[in-house]
Amino acid sequence: MINNVPTRLATEQLTAALRESDEYQQYKNLREAVMANETNRTLLKEYQRTQTKLQMAAMAGSTASDDDVERFNKLSSLLYLNADMAQYLLAQMRLQQLTGEVFQAVAAATELDLELPGM
């Protein structure tokens, strides 16, 4: 919890601006449409689980299993065949990029030295 009043107000303004952004609005609308389908939810959950395993392996400096890589590739292909799911995943990436840019700006403004993959 942020106790500093000016910082808390700035945080609230930033979160409000993010929620009003085109990137968030598109993501939210597409997420609702995609999550309304149980099959989509199940496939997406498995896709994200496999993606996380691959990312964790990469961050640990180890090689992901061939099975996990193959599973991720198959899930990716399957999900991107669905137009709604493809739009949702792209909207999610755009929103992640936006929040990453915000984080980079805050880290730079506070002279916080972080070495994060992909940033």
Descriptive tags:
single chain; 119 residues; mainly alpha; YheA-like fold; 80% helix; flat
Main β sheet profile: none
CATH class placement: Mainly Alpha
Please provide the count of β strands. 0
Q: Which outline best applies?
A: flat
CATH topology: YheA-like fold
Q: Rg from C-alpha positions?
A: 17 Å
Number of helices: 5
How many angstroms separate the termini? 26 Å
Tell me which oligomeric state these chains represent. single chain
N-to-C series of helices and strands: HHHHH
Mean pLDDT: 91
What does this structure look like?
The protein is mainly α and about 120 residues long. It has a single domain, classed as YheA-like fold, CATH 1.20.1500. The chain has five helices and no strands. Helix 3 packs antiparallel against helix 4. It is flat and about 50 Å long. The mean pLDDT is about 90.
